[in-house]
């Protein structure tokens, strides 16, 4: 049976190093800081009709550096920062596990994307993944998103990518410009 509901387009976004300053194992809200122009970029994507979904590996929980409750407080601060700038995030999905746990949700596995798609009725073929690590690009490609790699984030510049993104940018603002141009939305 064909769904009568139109599927949503989305921009999946990695958190640390992509839209937030990369603080190793950011463990308290006061250490969380959005990068410049991120709020404006999210607003532009909101206006263009994209669902905004944060997809983030947070192994600091599994390593015992902070609790899921504290991670929730950090995400509340992030949401409040967005709201102050009239920006909207539609979902936050995170993997709290240690990398050695071999869980089903840690990027580059697609589980967080699949959950978001189910919850928010997302069409991957009209969606994008923006991130600063190979695992972000690989995860986005696994589900059929176009991918944008933000250089200068968490992945060291001399580390080769495991897979090639659709586009390379120097900042989240440039990623937004490329997405809007790629879909023909005026800036």
Q: Looking at CATH, which topology would you report?
A: Rossmann fold
Unreliable sequence segments:
none
Largest sheet: 6 strands, parallel
Q: How does the helix and strand content classify structurally?
A: alpha/beta
CATH superfamily: HAD superfamily/HAD-like
Strand order of the largest sheet: 3-2-1-4-5-6
Helical percentage: 25-40%
Rounded Rg: 16 Å
Q: Architecture, according to CATH?
A: 3-Layer(aba) Sandwich
Succession of helices and strands: EHEHHEHEHEEH
- Domain tally: 1
- The number of helical runs is 6
Structural shape: globular
CATH class: Alpha Beta
What is the residue-mean pLDDT, rounded to a whole number? 93
Beta-strand proportion: 5-15%
Q: Separation of termini?
A: 37 Å
**DSSP, total strands:** 6
SSE arrangement:
Blueprint: E1 10-13, H1 38-47, E2 51-57, H2 59-62, H3 68-84, E3 91-95, H4 111-120, E4 128-131, H5 134-143, E5 146-150, E6 167-169, H6 172-182
Parallel strand pairs: 1-2, 1-4, 2-3, 4-5, 5-6
What characteristics describe this protein?
alpha/beta, Rossmann fold, 6-stranded parallel sheet, 6 helices, globular
Please characterize this protein's 3D structure:
The protein has 187 residues and is α/β, with parallel strands linked by helices. The chain has one domain: HAD superfamily/HAD-like (Rossmann fold). The protein is built from 6 helices and 6 strands; from the N terminus they run βαβααβαβαββα. Strands 3-2-1-4-5-6 form a 6-stranded parallel sheet, with helices on both faces. Helix 1 runs parallel beside helix 6. It is globular, with a radius of gyration of 16 Å. The chain starts with 9 loop residues before the first strand and ends in a 5-residue tail after the last helix. The model has no long low-confidence stretch (mean pLDDT 93).
């Amino acid at each position: 049976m064909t769904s009568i509901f139109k599927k949503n387009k989305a921009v999946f976004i990695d958190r640390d190093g992509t839209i937030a300053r990369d603080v190793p194992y950011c463990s308290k809200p006061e250490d969380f800081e959005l990068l410049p122009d991120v709020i404006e970029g999210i607003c532009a994507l909101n206006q263009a009709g994209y669902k905004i979904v944060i997809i983030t590996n947070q192994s600091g929980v599994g390593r015992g550096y902070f609790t899921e409750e504290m991670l929730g407080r950090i995400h509340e601060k992030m949401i409040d920062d967005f709201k102050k700038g009239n920006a909207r995030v539609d979902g936050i999905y995170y993997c709290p596990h240690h990398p050695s746990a071999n869980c089903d949700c840690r990027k580059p596995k697609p589980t967080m994307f699949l959950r978001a798609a189910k919850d928010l009725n997302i069409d991957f073929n009209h969606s994008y993944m923006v991130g600063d690590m190979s695992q972000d690009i690989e995860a986005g490609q696994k589900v059929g998103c176009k991918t944008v790699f933000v250089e200068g984030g968490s992945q060291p510049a001399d580390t080769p990518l495991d897979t090639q993104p659709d586009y390379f940018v120097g900042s989240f603002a440039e990623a937004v410009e490329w997405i809007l141009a790629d879909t023909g939305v005026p800036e």
